[in-house]
Batch of 2 targets.
Target 1
Amino acid sequence: MEPHRALPVWGEGIPELDSAARTYTLLRVPGRQAPTPGGALPEWSDWVVRRGIPAEAVSIPADQVADWVRHATSRMAEVLDGRVVGWRLAVSGEESAVMAARSAALRAHLLSAEITCHVDSREWVQVFCASCGARTLGASAARNVVCSGCGRALVAHAHSSISAGLYLADSGPDSGPDSGADAAEPTG
Amino acid sequence: MSPPTRRTMLSLRDRYEVGRGVEQFEFVGADPSLALPGYTPGAHLALRTPVRSNAYSLLDDGYRPDAYRIAVRRAAGDGGSDWLHRALRPGDVIEAAPPRSAFAPQLAASNHLLIAAGIGVTPMLSHARAARRWGRRFELIVGVSRGDPLFRRELDAVAADRLRRVEGRTALLGAVRDALARQPLGTHAYVCGPTGFFTTVIEDARALGWPDERMHVEAFDAPELDGGLPFRAVIRSTGESIEVPSGVSLLQALDQRGILLDRLCERGVCGRCLVGVRSGAVLHRDLVLSAAERRRDDRMLACVSRAAPTEPAAEPATEPSAHPPAEPRLELEL
């Protein structure tokens, strides 16, 4: 299921792929604590084989996924390069990476109908700072994230931009130097 | 009482031949003090002739138009086009509805593939001219008849380096298939031609993995439709319940109750009799709404579309049904 609201709703289970596709890329971007190494890829791989749809599988190692999210636009440009209409993207894994992949694909003019998403972990959250506009990737379990742009301690809200692939964040009540915010790295 | 449609009066400035049996008509406002409104590329102009009302694609890019230009093929059996050829002379005034967009370019597209057969080239000229003006990337494939100069000069002027002319239906469909198979991500395709032509193009596109959301169709004829099953329409704001028998359109049934919607073609082509649907499943039979719009089931064209038949309750095959299917019902927002 695709996110349709400000708060992503991914649905239960592994979504079925589009039988109208001409070719597929199956992208795996796992979190480090993913419940299974392959996520949806084994099921999707069987599915495309059964239907005779040409497909390629691309798996990013779990310890490289955070870096992949930070450079999602350029990494996705490699995936998207040279594709023609009829191609579909299916991405499975860590929410921040799935959102970043989907956002990059939409910016490359893919339609929602051409993208299938599956989320099986939420270890990171990529936020948009309402104060300075910087993007920052932080651990989702952390209470706060330090903005990579303005240094404010940010509170991530349950509100996201589907097109940008980011959660909204602003400076919470505890935004001082002793706020306990986790340091994080810029993502763009 | 006539339907509540905005009307404008246009004066024919000039007309001249642009192809075999096809003439270009140039209209200006009958009141020269009023500027003609701009329009979206691919929009059509509806003209009311004494015989019938017809919609014609506008030819220019729609930006600050000095005139409304259309091309009309003299067609046997189509009284409106024939009347325009036969009777309308420069200086004559004719009633029209303002331009209406139902075939607009997708501004989020990275590339536009324009596909036309015969006189279906008219909205593509508008699209190509707008694409030139605004720097949009496009490719144009036009099916032509041997020796027919239809818009040759105009097409060369706007799209010479991105134009492929193809003679013959088989060759045209082959060229279109080739083009569909190599379009970069982000391309939207626009098709205008007879129903049989665009149906084949859509089937080919689907076979190549194109989602329906990337295909946009402008039809210039409409298929014959059966009378459909009876259903009930309920006006949400008043609670009024209206029976729509087989063979009677929702538009006609509303007329009989004094509820007059805008309309022009009454064939599911012009899109003017669009009504909102609050609840109920629609059997869409028009050529206007996209696949995505149909799936939402929140609007319909009252001239051709009806309530979808209700599913009979599942019962043992040997037992006669004690519960016949419920009457199909639509709740309308008017």
Target 2
Amino acid sequence: MAISDGMLWDCLSQVSDPEIPAISIVDLGIVRAATATDDGGCEIVITPTYSGCPAMHVIEENIRQVLEATGMENIQVRTQLSPPWTTDWISESGRDKLRAFGIAPPAHRALATASAIDISALTAADETEIACPQCGSLNTRLISQFGSTACKALYRCGDCLEPFDYFKPH
Amino acid sequence: MDADKFHWLLRAGDNALVLSQRLSEWCGKGPVLEEDMALTNIALDLIGQATLWLSRAGQVEGKGRNEDALAFLRDGQDFRNLLLVEQPNGDYADTLMRQLYFDLWHALWLESLLQSGDTGIAQIAEKSLKEVAYHLRRSSDLVIRLGDGSDDSHARMQRAADALWMFAGEAFIDDELDQRIASRGIAPLPGSLRERWLTRLENIFSEATLTLPSADAWMQRGGKQGRHTEHLGYLLAEMQFLQRAYPGAQW
């Protein structure tokens, strides 16, 4: 049975991020291409969120497992660096799932690379109000630039007093 | 083999690798939980970047050495990192000041590599720069807060700034390899980043109420050519132990 690209994407949406199980790798924007090949197999292109992300190997394994379960052979998973992953690629449904999971999604679009070393621009962007994923309050405060993983910062809500992870614009 | 490019890539990879190893030494010992997590997260970013650079170095060398072989099976004199990154962690002021000196150079250097004539190098730089922007934001923020903090924190930051200064300038000294690489359009001359680094550092120091050491001071050198301080040997002994004791061991 020939598999369509659409079926591939459906399969891939079942693969969740090992560190944030609430969201799939498709919602996260990690999957850059999924193409059925002439030999009845497929080529999947993924991109790392962070260059040191320890989840990449697990993600690749999980992709293989899900596709092999459909009886498919000749599965190629390729990692691509460029263009680099950005939180702008997180889907709308992905943002909702993050919030429901207790992680505040990125509050603004990622900064252009060219301004990355302009410290004043970075600091200004940091002052954006981040809504608490628990109670929705904007009375929140940055605790640390680096949270439980490299992609998240640690915040605390001044109203419900809960600490929470914030997915940094990247 | 393109020996120049191979050695240049070792310089790039070894900086990230050695600093990552240093920062990992703080794991479980950070002064507060948030800082412990920040340091290990930065170490993780750097180890990822080291993997990208060294993997490419292995490809250019073409002798079948991958990033692991290059990280774990080379001796000290074959490492090409800056002397700054191998300096011991010291107290928290030393760790933070080393990080600021490095992050500021690192961000400027990666930004300049976006224009590299070597597409693979430009792609690694583009990926890394996004991560390093957060490193720089944190180190500059903390240096300002602690420099402009209590009398004790101010004194410690100034002492660390002075003590590490002689290792901060090596990144901007051009050698013959740098000149050949620059003439091929692979990377700019290291010295071309110096003015911007100094200007930005002056701004941060001024906000931190710290005194910038003299820009004309003598700068230690040699790391880029494989002549290291004695600290590197101890670092490698720990980092490479497992592969030396159990060659070829795998997860």
